[in-house]
Amino acid sequence: MRILVVDDCEEGAAMLATLLGLFAHQVETAGDAEAALRVAADFDPDCVVLDLALPGLSGLDLARQLRTEGAPGRPVLIALSGWSSPEDVAASAAAGCHHHLAKPLDFELLCELLRRADPLGADAPAARPIAAVAQGGAPPSAPRRAFRAPPARH
Q: What ranges do the domains of the chain cover?
């Protein structure tokens, strides 16, 4: 699956790209919306994971533009944000995002969303946590942390 990660935090984008690469995804990164549009034109991503707080053109504006320029339903847009109020989630949906994930990122949930969005559909292999990939087996169970972002301050 071709995935474009858009985040102005270079280190975060590179880390996510590396992790997704472990699952045999082809990943490109961009640090702002303008660069993302250029990369998307050449890379033709199946999915775009985009931070909403980008310099210049916002992540919501980027989502709207990708939605109008892409094929129907494609690419799958996954918003990633520290803001997760019902209004923020609704704004992401109105901009054309299929999903809205709160930071810190739940990587297992992202992998599940990517599996569902994979063009192979049900034939796509189920994502395994990184520990399982690195160690060749099942990871030890760890308690899940609930995360609720504080309300956005505008």
A: 2-135
pLDDT band at 72 (very low <50, low <70, confident <90, very high): low
32, 143 contact by CB (below 8 A)? no
How many angstroms separate the CA atoms of 139 and 70, rounded? 38
Q: How far apart are CA 126 and CA 88, in angstroms?
A: 29
Sorted by sequence, the CB contacts under 8 Å of residue 150 that are 6+ apart come out as: none
Separation in Å, CA 117 to CA 12, 47, 77, 83: 22, 8, 10, 23
The mean per-residue pLDDT over the stretch 50-56 comes to 95
Place of tokens 């045999």: 24
Confirm or reject CATH 3.40.190.10 for domain 2-135, answering yes or no.
no
